[in-house]
């Protein structure tokens, strides 16, 4: 596999949508992780009739627990071992491209050696829990939570705090998104640090929603990764609609949002030396979340992309 860009899809359901995503990114080296709890019949339906897709060893990957990070790390190891791609795009099964594969490749060629991801230092206001905990998400890291078998226990979607703990030295905590674009060397660095530091694995495996902080925090910590922190570019190239969100999930996208998607796709591309977008209008390369109600929207996007 020799494409300049690889796609790592992390999925667990909605096989028709996953299959459609795979078709839309034809030309990228494509890798698929499917949650180990997903029935074999659903996994098979994700790839039936598609081109070659490399399967990643399967982990149980609940959204708010360490397994989600394990799935991503397993995917990165597989990509690095099977592809020479210079960038790795981490996608959910409900993501979809807004640009053609050739446009994506051309844009990322300018970003060689640089990663693109959300990078907000903690405290991050959106991670406060309403009026209950106004600490900008600090509770995700400095609290111990009830665990069983090494996994955090969730009740009503949230962990049960049992005390305080120290944050590992040298770690600069950041809020991020699991969906990101890694430079190849940065994915290698992330894996190396976690392989060499079992204490960090223990810390993140008992952290709430670790996939939204672990990779970004490690890569942004110079004491752990040296100059890598200077090679990260803050600015998530995904369109996500958080309007009205009350449960931590973005809105499902439908046909009425096509004009907005086309507008954000047609913005001027960001350049490596541009300042962080911080939510201002800028070119988005992908959008989420797409689901069963998004079929008409996807049809129109495909017409635009020539899929």
What is the topology?
Layout: E1 5-11, H1 15-24, E2 29-34, H2 40-47, E3 54-55, H3 67-82, E4 87-92, E5 96-97, H4 101-109, E6 115-117, E7 120-121, H5 139-142, E8 143-145, E9 147-148, E10 151-152, E11 154-155, E12 158-159, E13 161-164, E14 174-175, E15 180-183, H6 184-196, H7 198-205, H8 214-219, H9 222-225, E16 232-234, E17 238-240, H10 258-265, E18 286-288, H11 295-305
Parallel strand pairs: 1-2, 1-4, 2-3, 6-16, 17-18
Antiparallel strand pairs: 4-15, 5-18, 7-14, 8-13, 9-10, 11-12
Could you walk me through the main structural features you see in this protein, from its secondary elements to its overall organization?
Helix content is 32%, strand content 19%. With 307 residues, the chain is α/β, with parallel strands linked by helices. Strands 3-2-1-4-15 form a 5-stranded mixed β-sheet. A hairpin with a 2-residue loop joins strand 11 (154-155) and strand 12. Helix 1 (15-24) runs parallel beside helix 2 (40-47) and helix 3 (67-82) packs across helix 6 (184-196).
